[in-house]
Design brief:
This protein is an alpha+beta fold. The protein has helices spanning 20-32, 54-57, 72-77, 89-107, 110-120, 170-173, 185-197, and strands spanning 38-41, 47-50, 86-87, 146-150, 153-163, 176-182. Strands 2-1-6-5-4-3 form a six-stranded antiparallel sheet. A hairpin with a 5-residue loop joins β1 (38-41) and β2. The protein is globular, with a radius of gyration of 18 Å.
Length: 203
């Protein structure tokens, strides 16, 4: 804009009247994914919307991390966030930092680079932080499950990412829906049982 180049698409909030249909579509996708967790994030991994099932994943997270704007990667790796509850935290941390590192490489976005620096400095399993270079070694497309200890038991989930294929707004072009699926049958049964009865199988 400063150089005199107007953006190809306008940029607005997802709550703007002009994007009401898009917001309804996002909400429909998130709600339709229940009883499994799903959330929408912007390019900086800021939470835009989430379905009810995401609440189960956020139990035990410090309220300060859930104050808007909520960064889901920070919540994931912060010691006051999900980190203490994630089984195989080292593997998950490596996966998250690697994914973010590739995003920085592709976009050269300074804000994403700062986020990578911040998250890399968080305490890692065994003390200290992983070397940044380790985040580069994970192959693209690797499926790394999120194995989370909850009050109902261990949940094992993997995620897929959906983006808008025909953007009409900068906000939409940078919006992604992260959908979590059960990685095993016990997790699927547990999530369905919690959704329908609001209690664990043995309650």
């Amino acid at each position: 804009m400063a150089g005199g180049f107007a953006p190809v698409y306008p940029e607005g909030s997802l709550d703007a009247p002009a994007l009401q249909a898009a917001r309804e579509a996002v909400d429909m996708v998130l709600t339709g994914h229940e009883p499994y967790p799903a959330l929408a994030v912007d390019r900086y991994w800021t939470l835009v919307a989430a379905n009810k099932a995401v609440g189960l994943l956020l139990e035990g997270v410090s309220p300060e991390l859930l104050e808007p704007p909520v960064n889901v990667l920070r919540v994931s790796l912060h010691p006051k966030g999900l980190a203490p509850h994630i089984a195989d935290l080292a593997q998950w941390r490596h996966h998250v930092l690697g994914r973010l590192h590739r995003q920085v490489d592709i976009t050269a976005d300074t804000k994403l680079a700062a986020l990578h620096e911040e998250l890399s400095a968080l305490p890692a399993p065994g003390g200290g932080a992983h070397a940044k270079s380790s985040a580069k070694s994970e192959p693209l497309g690797a499926v790394v499950p999120l194995r989370l200890n909850t009050r109902y038991g261990l949940l094992s989930l993997f995620s897929t990412t959906t983006v808008f294929g025909t953007p009409v707004d900068v906000m939409l072009s940078e919006l992604a829906i992260e959908s979590f699926f059960p990685a095993d049958r016990p997790t699927a049964e547990l999530l369905r049982r919690i959704s329908t009865e609001g209690q664990p199988p043995d309650a």
